[in-house]
């Protein structure tokens, strides 16, 4: 009996694994086709300075609308597929170009200038040509490294060599904002905050979610904010969804917030409307 159900469970497991692999293969094929079409676009989620209530920057988030609707996938699903192949390199280049093009366009429309942060995957960052491509594209659109920020996760920095450190330091010295994304969820230690030229920590959504109610989440959250501030880093709290979370964070005097409570990711045109209405201070 036990053996029988074990075997069934194995069969079920194998079948669903197989389904998953098929799905991933389909997504990869479809992503590859999409690179030649225009099935990608960026949406932008504002970051708010709570003291002034101004939009100071935004994060560019990739969206994919494949021609074959059944292949539709969220970034949480298709980015990991792209990362497992070399697709992420070309997709990442598309994102760099699209972000720069957008900033240049807003610039030409005389909108209040804000920085656009892009997410950079490990494979992309460790690609030899990445930094030249980034610098060249920024220059090609008449921008400076201050106009574009990069978000890296902790895991991406594990095993970074001197060369990567040097290239990141050059960008930092040129004024580029380098942020650690999803801070607190990775495997690295705090020591790399000393090593790498990081300007901003983005505290992962999971900590703020329960922080107003759970003592442990609150303690971790406060500890991250304290360490960050003592190191002179900016803190962005990600994924604020409620007024309670906002009030809780305000008590800690953190700097910046990004979350559905303020704004969801939106098309460029919608963000342009918001920026038009902002008053320079
Ligand atoms: P991330 O960089 O941590 O981006 C934040 C994610 O949280 C976004 O999901 C955003 O829409 C979502 N979010 C923001 N505020 C809230 C909130 O208040 N509540 C909730 N529940 N969620 C919130 P999205 O756009 O689905 O992206 C997921 C992940 O996909 C990103 O996480 C990032 O790791 C990756 N990704 C997205 N675009 C790119 C890209 O262009 N390149 C690379 N390499 N990765 C990307
Ligand atoms: Mg991010
Ligand atoms: Mg994040
Ligand atoms: Mg995330």
From TrEMBL:
It comes from the Bacteria. Residues 24-279 form the EAL domain. This is EAL domain-containing protein. It comes from Neiella litorisoli. The chain holds residues 354 to 634 of 634 of the full protein. Signal peptide: none annotated.
């Amino acid at each position: 009996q036990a053996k029988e159900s074990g075997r069934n469970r194995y069969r079920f497991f194998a079948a669903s694994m197989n389904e998953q692999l098929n799905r991933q293969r389909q997504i990869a094929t479809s992503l590859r086709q999409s690179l030649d079409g225009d099935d990608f676009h960026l949406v932008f989620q504002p970051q708010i300075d709570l003291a002034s209530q101004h939009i100071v920057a935004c994060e560019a988030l990739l969206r994919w609308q494949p021609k074959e609707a059944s292949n539709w996938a969220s970034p949480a699903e298709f980015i990991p597929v792209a990362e497992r192949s070399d697709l992420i390199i070309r997709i990442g280049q598309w994102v760099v170009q699209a972000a720069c093009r957008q900033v240049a366009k807003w610039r030409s429309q005389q909108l209040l200038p804000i920085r656009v942060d892009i997410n950079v995957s490990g494979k992309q960052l460790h690609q030899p040509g990445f930094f030249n491509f980034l610098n060249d594209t920024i220059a090609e659109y008449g921008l400076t490294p201050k106009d574009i920020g990069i978000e890296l996760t902790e895991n991406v920095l594990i095993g970074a060599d001197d060369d990567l450190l040097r290239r990141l330091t050059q960008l930092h010295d040129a004024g580029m904002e380098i942020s650690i994304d999803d801070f607190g969820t990775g495997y690295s230690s705090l020591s790399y905050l000393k090593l790498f030229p990081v300007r901003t920590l983005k505290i992962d959504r999971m900590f703020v979610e329960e922080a107003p109610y759970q003592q442990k989440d609150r303690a971790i959250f406060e500890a991250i904010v304290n360490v960050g501030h003592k190191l002179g880093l900016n803190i962005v709290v990600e994924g604020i969804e409620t007024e309670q979370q906002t009030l809780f964070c305000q008590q800690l005097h953190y700097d910046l917030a990004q979350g559905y409570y303020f704004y969801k990711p939106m098309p460029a045109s919608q963000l342009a409307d918001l920026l038009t209405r902002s008053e320079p201070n």
